[in-house]
Amino acid sequence: MTEKVMTEKNMAVKTILCAVVVGMFAGSYLLLSRPLLHDLSSAMPSTARVSETTSKPVTPAASHLSPVEKSTSRLTAESGAPESAAITSSSDTTGAQHQRAQGIDVSHDQGRVVWRDVIASGIDFVYLKASDGITFLDPMFATNMQALMPHQILVGAYHFFEAGDDPHQQLSNFLRATKGHPLTLAPMVDVEVSRGVKPQVLQTRLRQFLSGVEQATGCTPVIYSYGDFWQTYIGRSFNHYPFWLADYSPEITRPAGLQHIQLWQHSEQGRLPGIRGAVDLDKALDHTALETIRCRVRQEAI
């Protein structure tokens, strides 16, 4: 009985000693291997580190960007939008700013116009008929001017030139019709009928009328006509005046020798909200055309 007990005690001591030795060996192994594991971890990129790098937008170094590119890059990074989308948006805005300005020319033939609806349709400028020859005054001119005053839109007045009438009397008629009205576009003269007058005579009378308009209003007037009429009756000696071409073709055809075309009347059968029946449709040939003919007519013109 005593011998058996001693044997069991010896076995227990051996077991404890074995456990201690194994524990010491394992602890030493872990202690020695930690630097090695750390070095391996540093040398090989982890999945988490790669994900963090690729999740942020990559932009060029600031030192290599122009001021515009820096602004675009900063806004893109802040908004999280791709840079290509910002560039496309900028291009679209630029294109919109360079669209041709749209306009109409109106006389008493259009009757009473609801200008609020016309302007809401996208019209940028308006020309109103003021007079014709030496006696006719358009009965809707003053009414239209009054109705347009509350609206922010460019407005001009035009005179229908009668080749057979005295140009000085025509000038007086036009100035009488437009006196006191806040016009913001240069006066226009519509020259499209000869009434049997020879080209040289028509040119002399037209030149007198235009000179009188410019002296009285302080604005260089605009000439309106068709290509054939310009070639036969007006000609290159009037090329220093802005020109308004009537041409109802799908694409404008520039008459040979004609310069400074600013406006294009491309239809006489236009339809717009606020106008019953047809109306002439016009457009500026480029984004600077309206600035070229923009002119505040002298209020004291008589």
From TrEMBL:
Compositionally biased intervals (Polar residues): 86-100
Ranges annotated as spanning the membrane: 12-32
Record-linked InterPro entries: GH, Glyco_hydro_25
GO molecular function, a single term: lysozyme activity
Keyword Membrane: yes
SUPFAM superfamilies according to UniProt: (Trans)glycosidases
Highest taxon in the source lineage: Bacteria
Residue ranges of the region described as Disordered: 51-104
Keywords of the record: Glycosidase, Hydrolase, Membrane, Transmembrane, Transmembrane helix
Enzyme class: hydrolase
Protein EC: 3.2.1.17
Family: Belongs to the glycosyl hydrolase 25 family.
Protein name: Lysozyme M1
Taxonomic source organism: Vibrio spartinae
Gene: acm
